[in-house]
Every structure is written in C-alpha cells, then in structure tokens.
Amino acid sequence: MACDSKILCFRHCCSKSIFCKTVPEICPICKLCITEYKIMPFLVPYPYKNAACEPNSIVVRPANGNFLTDYHIVNDLHIGITNMNGLVFEYDKEGLILNDCSRWTNCIVINVIPSSWDSHWNETLKIMLKDSKWKSENYDEISMNCFNFVIEFINNLKYMNMNFTNKETICGKLILPKLRDALTYNFLFMKLESNEFFIS
C-alpha cells in the first residue's frame, strides 16, 4: 500500500467514526482537544494486494486502470488465477497469458481453498494450460473470455461442490462481497483527497 493511500479511523466524543489520513489534535465533531478516544485510531484495511504475493488465488482487477483511482462499478473487470509461486494466469484476446505481473500489483484477491488443496489447485491448472481451447483465436469478448477460464478452472477443481454456471453466479458469490469492501475504501479515499477528515 502506498503511504498516501492509507486511511485511519477513530472515535472521540460520540458514536460517529472519523476517517482521516493523519489524526487531528482537535476533534472535528466536538472541537475539543483530543486526549483520549472511544475507539483508538486504527488503519482501515487496504483491500488491494499484489497478486505475486498471493499464491493459489483468484485475482480480479479493472480491465483498464486501477481500482483505487480509476474504477467505477460500470467498468469491466478482468480475472485471473495465481499458482503456487504467485504467477498469474489470465485469458484474453492474446490467448493464455502468463505473469504480466505489472498489471496485477493492486488487485482484489479471493482465496477459495485451504492449504491442503494447494497441490490439487496446481495440478488442475497444469491440465487446463494444455487445453487448446484457450488459444487466442477462440477468444470472444462475450462468450469465451477471462471469466470463462476461471469458471472452468473452479468447476474442474471440484472443491466443496463449488460450481459456477455463468459470470453472474461467480460475481455474486465470490467477487461482489470483496468489491463492496473495496468500493467503500475507494469512497473514503476520494473523500479524503479533498477533505482533511470524513465523518460517518
């Protein structure tokens, strides 16, 4: 996390939370000097991670730009899979792409398996990488894209009866819960770009 994207939160005189980049000396609500807290200042968890540091995961990023400063809910998402070494496998119009890591440094990470499944995760991925269906000529923006690649991978994994039939189900079950947290963080970040604090 870049230090200019950190967000702090605390409570001083009431049940309202104060979000800021640095804790002020004077409470913005009661206007008194802060000597004690109802809730001590804490760092709001940063929702984005570097895919290279997240082995055996599903990773999601905007199709263009980055989540923190460019993403809006109507923008397309791109999705990939990391292996045991943190290498990213993704499918797009170029076909199957391995480890274009510079584009995956601030992504949403979704962990779906326990460590006891790591070996099976990587074996399933190796089998899929040999499948000729993931060549560039088979790519279609609507019907054969990055989501199809990840959905087929998860279905082949056969973990805990996890099975997805389409993009809507994988988004609803796996991506949207994480995306909501990320968008809340983005909202706070944008508020603090032009204000010293935000009260909620």
Automatic annotation (TrEMBL):
Report the residue ranges that make up the MKRN2 opposite strand protein-like N-terminal domain in this protein: 7-31
The superkingdom of the source organism is Eukaryota
An example Pfam family from this entry, by short name, is DUF4796_C
Q: Where is the MKRN2 opposite strand protein-like C-terminal domain?
A: 41-191
Q: Which InterPro entries match?
A: MKRN2OS-like, MKRN2OS-like_C, MKRN2OS-like_N
User: What PANTHER family does the annotation carry?
Assistant: MKRN2 OPPOSITE STRAND PROTEIN
Give the protein name, as stated in the record: MKRN2 opposite strand protein
Q: Which organism is it from?
A: Bombus terrestris
Q: What is the lineage of its organism?
A: Eukaryota, Metazoa, Ecdysozoa, Arthropoda, Hexapoda
Record gene name: LOC125384766
